[in-house]
Design brief:
With 135 residues, the protein is α/β, with parallel strands linked by helices. Helix content is 39%, strand content 17%. It has one domain: Rossmann fold, CATH 3.40.50. The protein contains 5 helices and 5 strands.
C-alpha cells in the first residue's frame, strides 16, 4: 500500500524537521521544499496528496515568492491542481487567515503549530470518502 505523501514547504529547517518527525511516524511520506521554486518543482515531480505551506519566505537573489503566489501557481499546474493546501504561518493570523482561505487553502494554522491539531486536520483531509451504500 502506498503511503500518502505530504509536501512541507518552509524556509526554516527546524520547522521542516519538527513536522517531519511528527508526520513520518504517523505513516506519511514526507517531501520538503525551502522556497516557492522548490515547492513547484516538488509538486510536479512528487504529486503530493497534501501541501503544508508557509506564507513568508526571505527575499533573496532572483525570484521572490510568498505562499500566496505559490498557491496561485499550484492551481495552474496540472500535477498539483486540486491538491489541498494548509497554510501555516508565524505571521499575524488576522492579516493572513482570510487571505489564505480566499486564495484556496483549506485551512490556516498559526505557528507554533499544535501537532495533534495538525495531524487531526491532515487525517480528516486525506480520509477516503465513504462509499455509498448499495441499494
Amino acid at each position: 500500500m502506498n503511503r500518502q505523501k505530504i509536501l512541507i514547504v518552509d524556509d526554516d529547517p527546524v520547522v521542516i524537521k519538527a513536522m517531519s518527525l511528527k508526520l513520518a511516524p504517523a505513516g506519511f511520506e514526507i517531501v520538503t521544499a525551502v522556497d516557492g521554486s522548490q515547492a513547484l518543482s516538488a509538486a510536479r515531480k512528487e504529486k503530493p496528496d497534501l501541501i503544508l505551506l508557509d506564507v513568508n519566505f526571505p527575499t533573496d537573489v532572483g525570484v521572490s515568492w510568498d505562499g500566496f503566489q505559490v498557491i496561485a501557481w499550484l492551481q495552474r499546474v496540472d500535477e498539483a491542481k486540486g491538491t489541498p493546501v494548509i497554510v501555516i504561518s508565524g505571521g499575524e493570523a488576522a492579516k493572513y487567515k482570510a487571505r489564505a482561505l480566499q486564495a484556496g487553502a483549506i485551512a490556516y494554522l498559526q505557528k507554533p503549530v499544535n501537532n495533534d491539531e495538525l495531524l487531526g486536520l491532515i487525517k480528516q483531509t486525506l480520509a477516503p470518502l465513504p462509499k455509498p451504500a448499495a441499494v
